[in-house]
UniProtKB/TrEMBL annotation:
Gene Ontology cellular component list: cytoplasm
Example of a GO MF term: calcium ion binding
Disordered: annotated span: 20-41, 215-246
UniProt name for this protein: Uncharacterized protein
Ranges of Basic and acidic residues composition bias in the record: 237-246
SUPFAM superfamilies: EF-hand
TM ranges: none
Taxonomic superkingdom: Eukaryota
């Protein structure tokens, strides 16, 4: 899955008179340096001195994202309809239409028939995290919210089918997820708690942020079973490793 960079930048920074992203300092996103993993980093030396993910949570950029929702997507009921969501996600990503409808159903977890601003902002944040290689930061901020969103109503733990929904929205294949978790005691037939959800996805997202694809990870670990021994830390240690955006 690919994120449409120009559209995302317009959401976050707003548009200038020419319909282009109103980037700070008139910097070009195309000239931004790559992160260590090869993803567009938008970090020091990019359009400004902060990552795009950090900027999203600043008052001005948050307000831009909110204004776009209210002006272009919000119905009289205060939510984004399925049709509006389809158009929005076509602009933001290259997901196919049937995949977008699946994502709509995931985020319409309370069955109101629409996506409210909070869920819309989560999607914008996910795509920003993916573009700026800040996925572990997203997990640190919103992991509990995502876990509760994909839970079966009335359940306390996730099935595997529910677990991979987050990865699906982030654009990861099952193969990528399973290869990233190859050296952990991950049971596709078991039930997954919140702590386990955070631990497992920290590994998956850390691989992506560092530019390691699921296939590459699986191949390297097959050749070197000790390659990720250092990653087998406790749940609390892994939480501490997550970067705060502050």
């Amino acid at each position: 899955m690919k994120v449409t960079e120009d559209f995302l930048l317009k959401l976050i920074y707003g548009e200038n008179a020419n319909g282009e992203p109103n980037l700070p300092g008139n910097a070009s996103p195309r000239s931004a340096p790559k992160s260590p993993g090869g993803n567009p980093g938008y970090a020091a030396g990019g359009p400004d001195s902060q990552s795009l993910f950090v900027r999203l949570y600043e008052e001005e950029c948050y307000s831009n994202v909110q204004k776009y929702f209210e002006k272009n997507l919000c119905t009289s009921a205060g939510v984004m309809s399925e049709n509006q969501f389809l158009i929005f996600m076509r602009s933001l990503t290259d997901f196919r239409d049937h995949e977008i409808i699946e994502i709509f159903d995931i985020f319409d977890y309370d069955y109101v028939g629409g996506i409210a601003f909070d869920e819309y902002f989560l999607i914008v944040s996910m795509m920003t995290a993916r573009l700026s290689a800040s996925c572990t930061q997203f997990l640190y901020l919103h992991g509990k919210q995502i876990f509760e969103m994909v839970l079966e109503p009335g359940a306390q733990k996730l099935t595997y089918e529910r677990f991979i929904r987050f990865g699906f929205v982030m654009g990861f294949s099952e193969r990528h997820i399973l290869n990233s978790l190859k050296d952990l005691d991950f049971d596709v037939f078991g039930f997954i708690s919140l702590d386990e959800f955070m631990m497992y996805y920290f590994v998956v997202l850390d691989d992506f942020d560092a530019g390691r694809s699921g296939d590459e990870v699986g191949d390297k670990r097959a050749a070197n079973p000790q390659a990720r021994q250092g990653k087998k830390t406790s749940k609390n240690q892994q939480k501490d490793e997550s970067c705060s955006i502050m």
